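Reader question, answered in our methods column.
A reader sent in the components of a multi-part assembly and asked whether the whole thing could be modeled at once rather than chain by chain. We filled in our standard form and ran it. Here is what they sent:
COMPLEX SIZE: two components
ENTRIES:
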Amino acid sequence: MNSVVSQAEPPKKSFLYDPKVRAAFYQILLVVVVTYLFYKAATNAIENLQRAKIASGFGFLENTAGFDISQSLIPFSAAGSTYGDAFLVGLLNTLVVAAIGIVFATILGFAIGIARLSTNWMVAKVAMVYVELLRNIPLLLQLLFWYIAVLGPLPQPRNSLEMGGGFFLNSRGLFMPRPIFASDVSAILIALAIGVVGAFVFRHWAKKQQAATGRQYRVGLVTLGLVLGLPILTWIVLALTATNPIGFDPPRKGTFNLQGGMQILPEFVALLIGLTTYTAAFIAEVVRAGILAVSKGQSEAAGSLGLKPGQILRLVVVPQAMRVIVPPLTSQYLNLTKNSSLAVAIGYPDLVQVFMGTVLNQTGQAIEVVVITMGVYLTISLVTSLVMNTYNRRVAIVER
Amino acid sequence: MTTAVDMSHYVRSDKIEALPPPRLTRGPLAWMRENLFSGPVNTILTLVVLYLLYVTIPPVIRFLFTDAVWTGTDRAACREDTVGHPVGACWAFVIEKINFFTYGSYPAPERWRVNIFFLLLAIGVGWLLWLRAPRRDLGAVYFFWVFPVASYILLTGGNVDFGGGFWLTFAIAAVALVGLLVAAAYFLQTSMRTALIIGLGIVAVIGITLAFIEWDFGLLPVPTALWGGILVTLLVATVGIVFSLPFGILLALGRRSKLPILRLASVIFIEFVRGVPLITVLIMANTMLPLFLPPDTGVDRLVRPLVGTAIFASAYMAEVVRGGLQAMPKGQYEGAMSLGLNYPQMMILIILPQALRIVIPGIVNTFIGLFKDTSLVSVVGIFDLIKTIEASRIDPNWAAPTISYTGYAFAALFYFIFCFGMSRYSIGMERRLAAGQKR
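And here is the structure of the entire assembly that came back:
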């Protein structure tokens, strides 16, 4: 029997079946379509702008702003400042509320996340109700609530609530003593820097010592002492020997308003409370998931090695939980930063309110303003995720 | 022998007395001791929490129920000075304004149309979310085609005037499309039938949609400026959902694609939208969309935030779907390819059904976020629920101290019910999907 099968030539297929040709075709098609859309949009925009007689380009940043901003960290005045300055003021205000919000939200979120895992039934349930309630109501509504419903009934400046220690509360916000720094305050800053560097050096040394000899040092205590104690000590020494480097200017009651001091806007407080409590609910869930992700065997094994409960938490559970917690925690931080743009609803002068609101309305240069604002948020997001990816690569478990 | 002697040293010869039984192991008292008062720290915590509850809960209950005013026609019913006792929530205000909160300024005789829209929406959502519902494929067709078209006609009144010669243009375009597909099939030496079916299918879907939109159903046209309240809130959420799923899937496929330009374009779009706050996207849609379109096409004020929301939701949906695609074992792709399926067949028949199934909880969570985010359209001047409350709250006819609180409480309740319901569904789904892994 002849079992040789004649090897037929494969049928000649059209070159259109070549995957490379197809890939090139689809991608060229995409490029053509996108380019066409961009081209149409650009020509339309140019025509529309010319009709509406709106200038284009970034020259408007040099123009005088002509409006006031209620909170600015850098000197700003309606007459003397430009739109560029307004942009900076808005950006700084966004960063300030985001930074403070992140700190508070982290503290509150960790506390609630741990409370949700508490063996105490009542604590766990209350934490759960908090999380469910805050997560399922829009942030905008919460901000409006905090702003209008809580801060609204505060008294007029004339009848400010005196809270002692130079703190006053009224409908214009919280007034408190403003620190005045003398020139030799730099000594304290230098002490702080030395403390931080010293703490790092000690940490490194202690780790090496432990690896070599097994002896443990009180790293936490020494760090605290160096970072906090050293500047405070410097302050006390300076205050006793020379002039006090930090003085306070308390607000005083005037006829209509409070004079001097430092004012915290009610908008700022409402935004901060809203962002903090809202984000804390999300962080709590992140923390809970992270701690639950550490298998029970880990803490049992640590216990059988003779570690005390505190040590188990500190040395075994938390380091492993952090690996799970940090990436979603970062995205919550980013969410908080992005959510701070809701300030526009309650009138806190953040980037969106100042730049996309007032400046956009005054100049009408929508494209430039939107591009700049979005660029800022994009930069923050991308830089953060870049840093996070690096961190993740460092802490990821290396498997073989 | 020696062992017996040795053993007696450490083996007990007499029985130990049994320990007394624990006093309480079940019952409320034992439970309380176990869960509330197991140690000094726990006891203090319990007491602190109890005190906090004592401080917060009674005033809230008093505000919402005990002191609340349920009936009344104007501010006099809700003012302490006229009523004579402390006044909590003024539900009379909500009851009187409920039509405004639900429909906005939608003309009263036409509100049945909005009600039908709500009903259609409920049917569509129920059909898709209930996993054992019959013919869920038809459900998808309903939700992504029939329902949007029907809602559009119902809410606006339909009867759009496309202008003369439109259908001629459409017919030419249709013939051109079918011809193009047939030509492609000819050059590719594949079946003409498939090409014809696809071509005619696309033409039929678009044609039927347009015909219905143009058809005069005798409905009174209602301009979008009159829409408001819960109608707009649900509408924005629905548009976000209806658009974000298909576009999200396409973007996710693009991001996982092997074609570099396609992947790059998807990545840029997704990361760009996810990196900026929704409010900036909305303001962008509001101010820049009219600029980018030809000069005389006025874009409806309601359409602008809808476009913004759809773009925003698509990017987030894409990331969720990508998670599902990545979770698919490689064997599924290889198995599909070894069966000789091409890319669309592989994705539609093998990968996506499984991938979408595992990310249902993620999809629902995205919807929760989207639903909450719809409240932001009020910032760009759209009359959603929040805006209607903001507008009613300052109505001089209802000027009373607790009106703001009442309005916000109502809105909070509304959002909470929807979001909480969705999150319960998502948790239940997660449990169901994890059932296979549980032993």
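What stands out: Chain B has a mean pLDDT of 87. The radius of gyration of chain B is 31 Å.
Send us your own complexes using the same form.
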